Amino acid sequence: MKTHKTGTREQWLAARLELLDAEKALTRQGDELSKRRQELPWVRVDKDYRFDTDEGKGSLADLFRGRSQLLVYHFMFGPDYNPSRPGVGVGAPGRASCTRAPLPSVLPP
User: Fold this and answer.
1) CA–CA distance, 32 with 74 (Å, rounded to integer)
2) What pLDDT does 92 receive?
3) What is the rounded CA–CA span in Å between residue 70 and residue 23?
């Protein structure tokens, strides 16, 4: 069993405040990275992507269904995916789910 250092309450408080400063700095760094990520330039999608959907073949624009934003869930299922629990779908109404697995294997029965 691992043993831990022991000390006084004052030593603990000093170490805890030092750790708190480091945690706050890490949070600020993460916030700055998020801001920089959001400021990345947009790039026009020129490729004609085609998708198998529950309504047939569709384009990227079709997935938006007239909306200005698209929320996509990317499931890391490969083309050989075989659901271990039949009937468990990965989609949700109004959201796009993206996977390389065959469409019938991820749609509810």
Assistant:
1) 25
2) 56
3) 34
